[in-house]
Every structure is written in C-alpha cells, then in structure tokens.
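call fold(seq) -> tokens
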Amino acid sequence: MSDVEVQKTIGLYCSLMDEIKFRIEWIKSVIHAKISIAETIGRDIGFLELRLICELIALSCAVAHGDIKETRRGRFTEKYQADFFMKALEALKSDFYPKPMLMIEGQPPIPTAVGQIVLPPPPMQSGFLTKSDLVKLYRDCGERLHRGYLPDILDGKQIESEYSMIGKAVDKIVYLLNYHAIDLITGEEMWCAMIGGPNGEAFAGKVTARRVP
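ret:
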C-alpha cells in the first residue's frame, strides 16, 4: 500500500476502535445502573452490543489487512458475520489478530517521528479476548438474543440478567484492545492505543522493526 493508503487505513481502523469504545461505555452505563432500565432489557442491550463489538473487531482485522488483496473482494465484501471473518482471515494469515501489549513506562505508546527508536512492548499473557473467545462470544450472544425454545416457555423459565457475564466479556475486550499491535503481511506492525490521541481518541501508527546488520 502507498503511504496515502496506509494513513487512510490507520484512520479507518482508529474510527472503528472509537466506535467500539462508544459501545463499551453504553454497556457499562447499563450494567452499572447509570441508566434506569429493566434488567431484562438491559441484558438484551448488553448482548446486542457485545455481538456488534465482535463484528467490529473482526471487520477491523480485515481493514488492517487491506494489503492482502483477497480481503477486498469476493465473500469479504458480502459478509458481516464475525465468525466468517475470523475463519476466512485465519486461512489467509494465521497471525491476523490483535496482540495486546503492556505499555513501557516513560515511552510513548505510539512512535510519531520517522526513525524514532522504541523498545518493543512486552506482550500481555492472559485475561484478554482470544480468537476462539471472540467466536464463542459472538455465537453465545446470538443465542441469548432470542426469547428461548418452546419447552422453556412452557416450563415458565425466566430470563436472567447475566450482567456478570456481560461485564467479564467487556473486561476481556478492553484488555485486548487497550494497547495492541497487529502484524502486517509486510513484516511491519501497526500499534494502536485506544486513548492515545490528544482528545482521548484511538491513535495508531505503523512501526518497522529495526534491521540488525
């Protein structure tokens, strides 16, 4: 991709990260009772937003890998389902998913100067939403957005709020995306900080590994 295309890709990627943040804040407002709403309706909102966030993460991966021509044609342009994108991207490039990182104290999260040398941030080891977690969460949310099976209705089964499950899923998503890298097919990386911009917006940049002579 040209420099112009790279910057356009980064801008679009950051806008999707900002949309994810917006949806997460709405979920938090519901499950922490900042909005007066019946728990059953709040539950539905939580699972709907989680499902949309799963789609946004999967779509973000496709956006980031625009240098892979297959992501811009065929079924990639006809689908929105998160599980489709996860499987299709895996077939093209197994290392396509965000890699959560830990910030290094005293080092800017995203290098902004050409030639700036920074230390590679250490990877986060656990607690984040993995690829398999995302697919499972996406499908679980789909199941929970239905009233239930007829035997459940006949037995008088009640809907539970499940706020705890929703909150834990949100935490995993935040750990995944708060500060992360995506490996590009060129061997470079895109680093993204969810609140790295001057106004708290998502901020990202392309990073090239220093070659050892």
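Residues 194 and 202 are 4 Å apart (CA to CA).
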